[in-house]
Structures are given as C-alpha cells and as structure tokens.
Amino acid sequence: MAAAPPTRFCPQLALLVKAVPDGPLWLHEIKYDGYRIGCRIDRGEVTLFSRNNKDWTATFPEVSAAARKLRAKTAFLDGEVGIVLPDGRTSFQALQNALAHPGRSGLVYFVFDLLFLDGEDVSASPLETRKERLRKLLEASAPSVLRYSDHIAGNGRALFTHACTLKLEGVVSKRRDQPYQPGRHDSWVKTKCVNRQEFVIGGFTDPEGSRVGVGALLVGYYDGDKRLISAGRVGTGFTNKRSVEMRQRLEALSTDKTPFAAGLDTWLARHAHFVRPELVAEVAFTEWTSDGNIRHPSFKGLRLDKRPVDIHREQADEPPAKTAGVMTQSQPVRSKAGPPARRTAATSRATSGAARTKPAAAALPEVGGVRITHPDRLMYPEAGLTKLDLARYYEAVADRMLPHLRGRPLTLVRCGDGLPTGDMRADCIYMKHSKVWAPEALRRVRLRERTKTGDYVIADTLPALVSLVQMDILEIHTWNSTFEHLEQPDRLVFDIDPGPEAPWAWVVEAARLVRSVLTTLGLESFVKTTGGKGLHVVAPLVPSISWDAGLEFSRQVATAIVRTKPDRYTTKFAKAGRERQLLIDYLRNNRTNTSVAVFSTRARPTATVSAPIAWDDLTTRLRPDQFTVKTLSASLARKKHDPWDGYWTVRQKLTARALKAVARS
C-alpha cells in the first residue's frame, strides 16, 4: 500500500540576514505578504494547515477546491496564501480585509515547495529537483488559484534591488542543493526591504481626539527566559472599523496585571489597559531604537497562524558561513558588533586618516575632580562642542543648577557617541533605572514603583553632575519631588507644547495666562525654556500635598485655560489635529513623570539649554532656541542677576481654598 502524506505541517523557516547571498548555489524568490499554508492532498481530501498546524481548510475554500483538481492522488505542498493587488504586489492588510468577505477576489496560493507526491517522500531531494516536479504538477492542472512560485538562479543582488524598487517585502534565498529541513536553517534566508515582524499584544491605550476603538497597541516579544519584553506602541495602520473590532477583541482578554516584564514608562503603566498575551500582530517599522523600541511602527494585521510564545525579536545574522559566492550588502542594518567609530573634534577635522594616539591617563583633563576620558569627542558635531566643553559648561552653571537637582531622582538621556547626524536622536537612549552603571559620585536610591522597586540616581554635587557628562548624558530630567519627601511634590510644572504651526507669540501668551491663573489662586510661578519650542511654568511648593491632589489641581488649571480659547489650547496629547494648537501638558505632575532640569542641555543639534527667564524678559522678541551651551555660558559670565531670583525664598502651599476655587472656574 502506498505511503500516505504527512499529517502535520512542519515548515522550514527562513533566517533573517543582513545581505543577499549572490552566488551560483542560491535560488531567489520574491517574499510574499500573506499566510504560510501547508496543503495535504489524500485521494480527493484536502486539508490546509496554518504555520502552527491549525486546520484552515474552511478559511480558504477556494484553495482547497483548486487543490482537488491537481493530477495527484497524494501530495503535500508548501506555499503562501495572499491577495494580489492590481499592481501585482501581495498585501497582508488586503488579505485581512478579504477574510471577512466570502465573495473576495484576487486570492492566490503561491506554491514554492513540494514535500510529498503520489506515495513518495520527496523532501530529502535537492530543492531544485523538488521545484521542477512542483512546476510540472501545477502546469499539468493549471488551477487558477494555485500559482507556481518561480525563482531566479544567482544574481540575488539585482532581484533584491528590483524588489525594493517595486516596494515589495523582500527576497527569500534558498540553497538549490539542500533538502527540506523543518525549522530555521541557514539554507533558507530572507532579506527584507523594510523591517517587519510579528509582536505579541500585551495591552492598549484609549483613543484621543476623533479616533475610536484603540489609541495604540502595546506590543512586545519573548526573550530567552520567556519574559514578555516591551517593544513600544503601535498607533497607526488602523481603519476606524478595525480599531473598534480590535478593542472588542482585546477587552475580552482584559487583565489587571501587566504581562510585560519591564520597559513601560510610568504614564503607560498607569493608564494602559492590559490584556492576556494571546494575540499576535504583524507590524512594519523603520528600525529598532537603541532603547529597544520600534520606530515609526504601522499595524498590518493579526497573525492568527502564529503562537505568541514563538514570537522573538528578529535580528539579522551574518551571512551563512558555508555560502558559495559573494555576499552583497542590502539595506543598512545596525551591526551587532557595536556603534560606529566615535567622532572627535580632531578626527572630524583630519584629512590624512592618520591614527591617533590614545592619551595617557595622567594627561586626561579633570573637571570638578572628575577625569574626562575622550575629552575631544564631539558630543554636538554641528555646534562643534566636545565632551570637555560640556563638562566645563556644567561646571560654570553648577552653583545655580545643583539646588534644582539636589535630592531629586533622575531620568537621563544618553548619547554614547554624541549626537549623530540626520536622525538626531537615533543612537540616544532613555536611562531611568541605574542598575550597575552609575559612577561613584552619584547617589543611588531605591524607589517604589507600580509593580516593583526601581534603582535611581541623584546628582547632589559638582562631581556627580560632571560624572553625568563622563557617562555621555545629554539630557537631565528630574522628579517633582525629592527623595526625602518622595510622596509630596514640591513644585508644579505646566509644559506649554506648541504644534508645528503655532506661532511663538501664542506660546508667550499662554505662559503669561498660566501665570495669571496661578497668581489668582495665590501661587507665584517662574518660567523657563524647555530647550525646544515650548516653555515651562513652574510653581514651587512646600511639600505637603499628595501627588493625586497636585495632578488634579494642575488638570483643573489646564482645563480652565483651554476653556478660554478652545480653538487655540488643548489638553489632548495626540499630535494629529493640533498643528496650530498649544498643548497645556499637566501630566508632568504625575508621580514618576519628569521634566527637563533647569540648565540641562538637550539632545538637539544646536546644543540648546533649558534656561530660566525673568518674566519681564519673556517677550515675543525672545527666541526659544537662543539659549545654548555657548550663549548661556557667555550670558552667565556677564550677568550676576539670577532670572529666578526669589525661587528658593518662596514658601507657598496648595491650599484647600485654591483647590476649590479652580474646581469652580
């Protein structure tokens, strides 16, 4: 009796690589954008298997009907089901939409491998042999829904370039002489034109503005210890209908406990809706950031064919060592070996390319008692500022800056090679918890968070401040309370954040309006630039109120201001739709949320600084970006007057009367 075809689908998977193998032993196929499907044929009975061995026969009846017409008693096929667009591309999003419509058109089963045929296991044959038998089988029957996935031999670089020009997903390259091997092996590799992979959904946020359903999906992947690691938020790629359907689906999986091991910021941890990690989303994105999030993500659809536990972070490996032929570079991929060579003032000016001699430890300059390594490294290439320049800047402002840092837990922005050109923050990471990286001069503290205890650092002294420079820190953000009075904030911060089309005059007017409201409520306030396009209005307090009281008060103040000119001011954080509006951000006053410290530099190309301003100097003639490391240092050298004179002598409390007054306004 002839052998029966396999009863399970154990697919061979492609290994993600940085480059296309371009030699005579490789066959190259277009990478399709659909569902991987195994097709079992046994004497007229057809079963379609998903990648994780679920029966999908009823999902694609047109495929099973076409497979019955093949001139084979028994067979097992491997391929991808997709929807073909008018321009010839496949679209996973179109396939998702088509699944809900029985009368769909354009669905094709691209068959690229043959594992079993008429009682014979052919999986051990070379790929080229299997594909030739597959081609003859499909051509003999010519069912329209089943399509042979053709290939080209060699010349993978040209195919990859052409695929990316046509905005296809990429290329799959396979060794022509190898058998079919279930699992992931380097005899099948894939090279992508864009980054794209599956992520596990662990939660979602509420929509803002005119959006409905979900605001963003919280996604992640499992690491080697089976922990769900956050990869960020996905807030684009949804239609309104799909967003509403997604919310209904996620609410059925609701849970009070976060499924993520770590990585969520404070606001998300408090405001997200968590779900059991049972759904997998396919997401396109531009790159991984250095702090482990995906940049510019876009939702493409749910992957019902994949198990959450199988979702890991895909990282492009080096080309297979046994590859025949020359490996050619494809799209730029960040190397695992580490960042590019660090730039210094000397090497940027050099034209000879001669090697530099590393300075002896004894020759390294000291600032504030801290030895500065790589003192000539360019931290701000466009401004021409080195690491030593930055250390000397902080030494110059320390007397005025340190009182605003003393006792406050920090969140830091580190740019290990200074600011890169182009995407100015591409290689910068937020550092919230200290773990083991903090120098001796920094004070370490442990703080209770929502689900755990976190290790933070505090910079109380000049050596501690300069140590942050030595760590390549370009931004210093502080809590609104000190460690000694952790649960009683000692200031309120209102962040006035303009949309890209909002004029500076509006920002000035808004800051003065915030001041006026606070004055009416009995609170004196101070103003500073953010180092960006906005302003911070800061009201110092005697630490006495709770975080919740301060947050509610600031929310009421912001809401009252919005009511004065709702077309100009908003408290909604979504950027879409507020291009000519000012966000009155009161969430700086939430526990563990931070705001950039007075005198802190910003990770921006011109080395702008968050600078204190006297209210009399806040005019439309002032420019928000005029305060930089260079200009502020010169200004402080000329002026002895502190624009925040009186800040430390203000002794004011947020009274019950003020709370009631703002609630009635």
Largest sheet data: 6 strands, mixed
How many beta-strand elements? 37
State the end-to-end distance.
88 Å
The average pLDDT score comes to 85
| Class of secondary structure makeup | alpha+beta
Describe the secondary structure blueprint for this structure:
Blueprint: E1 12-16, E2 19-22, E3 26-30, E4 35-42, E5 45-50, H1 61-67, E6 74-83, H2 92-98, E7 107-117, E8 120-121, H3 127-141, E9 146-148, E10 152-153, H4 156-165, E11 170-175, E12 183-192, E13 195-205, E14 216-222, E15 228-234, H5 240-251, E16 260-262, H6 266-271, E17 273-285, E18 287-288, E19 294-295, E20 298-302, E21 326-329, H7 345-349, E22 366-367, E23 370-371, E24 378-380, E25 385-386, H8 387-405, E26 410-415, E27 428-431, E28 443-448, E29 453-458, H9 462-470, E30 473-478, E31 491-498, H10 504-520, E32 526-529, E33 535-540, H11 547-564, E34 569-570, E35 582-585, E36 595-596, E37 612-613, H12 629-638, H13 656-664
Parallel strand pairs: 1-12, 7-9, 15-16, 34-35
Antiparallel strand pairs: 2-21, 3-10, 3-11, 4-5, 4-6, 6-7, 7-8, 11-12, 13-14, 13-17, 14-15, 17-20, 18-19, 22-23, 24-25, 26-27, 26-30, 28-29, 30-36, 31-33, 31-35, 32-33, 32-37
